[in-house]
Write a structure and sequence with these properties.
This is Coenzyme Q (Ubiquinone) biosynthesis protein Coq4. The chain has about 170 residues and is mainly alpha-helical. About 65% of the residues lie in helices and about 0% in strands. The chain has one domain. The protein is built from eight helices and no strands. The longest helix is centred in the N-terminal third of the chain and has 38 residues. The N and C termini lie far apart (about 50 Å). The model has no long low-confidence stretch (mean pLDDT about 90).
Length: about 170
């Protein structure tokens, strides 16, 4: 009986800590993302989800539009390529997968303070995801450089062709 009370309390504390972790990291990412958009160089694409869905069905633009629609997102000005990384790599939008995407980009050669912050948060707060992060970094290293491509110019290209060309 004492053992079951201990285990019950232990699992209750664990689940509470996981919820607190997600809330903390989510709020931190939200804040840093807003700051990142303000300082990021580049020109917004000025394309809506609806406009992306008007691209041919086999195109990168259409697949990006579907991703945005599925997640109830709109393109974030000057950061539109971030969602393309999700589309091409298959990383989801939960916190651990967002961090894994940053590890992929690091392995692919991208360097930025935001990326370093996300990776640091991953190391500190997601020790249960180390294997995922390591695999993402290796996958990024093995892939040809994609982090600095002009994806706006590739929106009309066939999605499957781009995915096979850039993601192993």
């Amino acid at each position: 009986m004492t053992k079951s009370i201990f285990l019950s309390s232990y699992f209750e504390i664990q689940s509470t800590l996981l919820i607190v972790r997600e809330l903390f990291v989510g709020a931190s990412f939200d804040l840093t993302s807003r700051l990142y958009v303000k300082v990021k160089q580049g020109t917004p694409w000025n394309l809506s989800t609806r406009q992306l869905l008007d691209f041919p069905e086999d195109s990168l633009g259409f697949h990006l539009g579907c991703f945005l629609l599925q997640h109830n997102f709109e393109p974030q000005p000057k950061c539109e390529d971030h969602d393309i990384f999700h589309v091409l790599t298959g990383y989801k939008t939960d916190t651990a997968q967002e961090i894994a995407l940053q590890f992929f980009l690091y392995g692919n050669g991208k360097r930025s303070p935001f990326l370093s912050l996300a990776m640091g948060a991953g190391y500190l707060l997601y020790p249960d995801q180390y294997a995922t992060f390591k695999a993402a970094k290796v996958q990024g290293h093995l892939a040809p450089p994609v982090y600095d491509l002009d994806f706006k110019g590739l929106l009309h290209k066939p999605f499957k062709q781009l995915k096979s060309q850039f993601i192993n």
